[in-house]
Amino acid sequence: MSEAPLICVRGEAVLEAEPEIARLSVHVQSQESDRRAALDRLTERNRRCLDLVESYGDAVERVETGGLSIMPVLKYRRREGDVRGYRGTVWIKIAVVDFGVLGELVARLGDLERTYVDGPDWELRRDSEVYGRAARQAAHEAVARARSYAEALGARLTGLVELSDEGLHRTPEAPVALAAAYAPGAAEAGEPEPIDLEPETQIVRATVLARFTATQPDLEPR
């Protein structure tokens, strides 16, 4: 008796979802003629930035220091001892979960002295239910496609031989843009206007490969 026929198909799903996290990257700088003065000024500005972020409470899920550097600023010819000052930089990474305050936070961070703000980088959580939903839809699509092929041949599915996951992928609709720029001087009196920020739709793609057994097809002409 011949082996059961195999039907091999690919199941795919593409879902659109609202982001769950907005990530900001903040660089705080100082530049002074003296190394210690540059470090002290950087410490002061870093504390001011952290105090501002922490004032938003649970709206900010995580704050991390990504790195700190103090380096000499050399003159053009770069001769030995040819240092005109020192520049300090602190990199702060912020994860915001309440998008209602995001525009205000970005504007206030960008208004701080010698501060760069990059972002937001919109994301889904790693354990987001959207990934599971996409995987299930891809599997359902594989079954439906295999069943359609079997019916076209006058057969029916009898079992699953293999189901392999080709992976889940998240793709933003557009490149991440600069949210707020460098503030070269001290903040002016009063609070800046919040920046209008629209959450970027997240596109999740799931693909599976499946092999099914089927009954012998009916290939007689009709």
UniProtKB/TrEMBL annotation:
<dbReference type="InterPro" id="IPR007497">
    <property type="entry name" value="SIMPL/DUF541"/>
</dbReference>
<dbReference type="InterPro" id="IPR052022">
    <property type="entry name" value="26kDa_periplasmic_antigen"/>
</dbReference>
<protein>
    <submittedName>
        <fullName>SIMPL domain-containing protein</fullName>
    </submittedName>
</protein>
<dbReference type="Pfam" id="PF04402">
    <property type="entry name" value="SIMPL"/>
</dbReference>
